[in-house]
Amino acid sequence: MKFTVVVPLYNKGYSIERCINSVLAQCSHLDQVIIVNDGSTDNSLELVLALYHDEITAGKIVVVDQENQGVSAARNRGVVESLNEYVCLLDADDEWLPGFLQAMGRLIEDFPGADLYSLAHLIKKPGCELTKPKHGLADGFRGYVLDFFKSSAKGSVAKSSKICVRKEALLSIGGFPVGVVAGEDLYVWIRMALNGKVACDMKYLSVVYQELDSSRGARRVSVPYPLVYFSKNKPPKIVSLHRYLFSIFYKHFLSSLVNKKFKESLLRLYYYFRIYL
Predict the structure, then answer these.
(1) What is the DSSP letter of 196?
(2) Do 202 and 88 sit in the same domain of this protein?
(3) Could you report the per-residue pLDDT of 100-136, keeping only the tens digit for each?
(4) Domain that residue 54 falls in
(5) What Å distances lie between residue 42 and 12, 50, 93, 102, 195, CA to CA?
(6) Quick one: 130 and 206 in the same domain?
(7) 237 in the same domain as 202
(8) pTM of the predicted structure, to 2 decimals
């Protein structure tokens, strides 16, 4: 089994080497790395071209350079360019620990009926040690997720730097919604879970870095896309899905109140209640 790894890149000159090195260090299953430079204005692209000249020449790393269109467009471009059925995503400021792709390959071999696969992740904040966030599944869990929405309402099950998708399953829902800056990934996991199975192995082999940079500002004041989408397209009558949508709303609504973003609070409230009008 071979994987394509897609890395969307926008102004991550401070972390892209760490990210790509963690991919190249995987001992098995790695076939292709596609780095989609989404109009970076720092030295991100130049670093990649200089540091990985040999891998690019050999075709192991493919660099796609496009005008800035957002992370969804960058991910979609990488998935379309993929030569393999299974595509792993990794954000340019995160990294994998040794054995990530090996564990993912075994998960797919043992549970071949899923469209979305996930491992567990650790959190790294500036100046702090690695910590375990709240996950929606218990440590040691391995298999098909019985109720993705119920588990996701409790904590993280799928996240962009720890998942693998079946290429055709992602493309069948139109990929990531272009132009969306908040909750675009949550929307995709929901749609994929509605259409097919999800499998997870709770091995902590991904590290997500929580660093503040200019690319995150728009997310803090935007309405999470699942609320926008389901306000226009009524969700199925699945109790756990509605609980999950409420958890998404409540988390962002509370955050906007705490940060005194009252306009954003009202907008999030408006879209949530539109789901049920």
Answers:
(1) S
(2) yes
(3) 999 999 999 999 999 999 999 999 999 899 999 999 9
(4) 3-212
(5) 8, 14, 14, 33, 39
(6) yes
(7) no
(8) 0.95
